[in-house]
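NB-ARC domain-containing protein
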Amino acid sequence: MEAVACVSCGALGSLLRKLGALLSDEFKLLTTVKGGIMFLQAELESMHAFLKKMSEVEDPDEQSRCSLKELRELSYDIEDVIDSFMLSLGGESSSNPRGFVRFVGSCMDLLANAMTHHRFAKKIKVLKRRAIEASSRRARYMVDDVVSRSSRPNIDTRLPALYTEMTRLVGIDGPRDKLIKLLTKRDGALAQQLKVVSIVGFGGLGKTTLANQVYQNLEGQFEYQVFVSVSQKPDMKKIFRNILSQIFRQESVSNEAWDEQQLVKTIRQFLKDKRYLIVIDDIWRKSAWRVIKCAFPENSCSSGILITTRIIAVAKYCSSQHHDHVYQIKPLSATHSKSLFFKRAFGSEDGCPLQLRDVSDGILKKCGGLPLAIITLASLLANKASTREEWLRIHNSIGSTLEKDSDMEEMKNILFLSYNDLPYHLKTCLLYLSVFPEDYEIKRDQLVRRWIAEGFIIAEGGLDLEEAGECYFNDLINRNMIQPVGIQYDGRADACRVHDMILDLIISKSLEDNFVTLFCDPNQKLLQHDKVRRLSLNYHAREHTVVSPNMIVSHVRSLTIFGLAENMPPLSKFQSLRVLDLENREVLEHNYLKHISRLSQLRYLRLNVRKITSLPEQLGGLQHLQTLDLRWTRVKELPASIVQLQKLACLLVNSAELPEGIQSMQALRELSEIEINQNTSLSSLQELGSLTKLRILELNLNWHISDTDCVMNAYEYNLVMSLCKLGMLNLRSIHIQSYHSCSLDFLLDSWVPPRLLQRCGSTQNPRGYALSVISLDILKNSKA
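Tokens:
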């Protein structure tokens, strides 16, 4: 099974499923329409196979890029037409009038249905012609025969790191000495055992340079020392021959005809009972380590192996018995960054002219302590005029310079190694982060829900979509593509940030593939396509942003807006929108949402706008909506139609009242900060217990009941009964807070947290529960 949408294949995943559904017996299609759909299905299956094959090519030529772009754009256009058609077929009235009225209504429905089929048949005809033209063009230029560009020489980007003079390095003494201590310090019965230490960190942080400094500083302390590089696609025979040539030194060993087993056996026999140090640089796979480690005897005279990798899981695997032997390399400090930059750009730390100081600070902020970026940009600027204007030009165009300037080629290649190593679904999820501004803290749950709404997540291995999405998030952290923020009590990262150089990389790639269109930094030159698929507007960075009148926004699937401007495009133009995320805190007018019911494909709606106090009653018409996040609004009463949202899985509010009829919302998995007060009916409290899929529940109790105790007891009884029912279903996390004089003692007296509960807390009464199957802890929380 594959994702509904991805950067490589466009919308073909979901499109093929929808075409298959249309051809089922559920839809009664005209013969011409059915024939057109069958043709498209066959043609698109062939295109899909081609796109999946090309997604494995790291650097396709220009002709292939044009073909890939054409097919992706075609898939989006076809899906937009199919969605519109399926919506019109599903839009018939559900009422059941009788007699003459029913007869007339049936006739009108038949007429409307015939007209819909006729219009759709015309559109299918146009799409068929485009599909045929695209296939013919592909065959005419033999795009299928193209594998990748072969004109570029294969240069080992690690060589400069191996031959950097010590005097040109900064900030390396502390990490080097710590690693030497890790490798050489021996205790107790395991003193003679082989010790494996791993250096892990993102590309460009200086892992190879650091490992080489450790290697050089330990010369003479081991009988044999070897330094080998592995890379993404290791040639094991070549690696083992390299090891042999280094341990035999001047001796000539004829091993060209040996297989891997003979090479490993020879290395093991030679190193037995000898003290050795092996540096294995740039390892990417656990499978590679499983093979390589066979060459080294474990009980061997306090020997050591030092490994470098970009992937946390690989580092831990190589040092599996001792995770304290994993060294996470850090970016350079601000002081060391400045020292390195000025040394490379001006020859000395105090050589920077006064007029370039603030520009240098801006460039260093962009580098984020990444030695590779600092050295590359400093070397580039060393050959430029030392004028403020020239340096500002470089500062303002770092992203485009990374893409085009030959002096930046090495850095681009090193950064792209990690991107190209990602599976296609993670490439898609990573590129999606380009919609967020620089230095933005991206919340994990918010991001995962957006990925789900876009169709990027595949539910496999017994995981649901949210669990799979969190695995994607963790995998990007594991690969050092994103930086974790706010580590929680359970070890999970609450959010992430993207390093500025990585952000430049993914913005460049997203724009090239028309995956995302940005209006943000006024200094950034952006590619603009007529048809926009995902649009991000950052009015904080660019107040006078004007969306081009030539831009077709009716095909936009994701709209993200930061800040506010008077010329924001009206929502009525975004007919294909799946994701709407508005973040401007205070000033968005309520009437901006008046046409929201027209967004028939909307799956994710987040409003971070304090001024919004109510939502249109027509909200219930958004039948595909999965997430509604209103936590940063002042909406206290939800529209009655909200209970019609049959696919809504996540409802996040800011003390909005529990709606009547909530039992209809059977897809709900998370219900957060819903308020129960004196206006809440007893029937609503009872219905709460019927939400069979609910996993996360946060309640605010705010009742002021002045009647008899029996009324209060009725509220408490119904709430406890609902919680008991939920506890026997899927409830995993619950948090209840109360205001004023509303006591939570009744919960402690009459409700026992269920065994499946992972987290439970209350914040009026300081007692709460944190339960993981069998353990019960006390949380000391308090809230006024």
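Residues 99-140 form the longest helix (42 residues).
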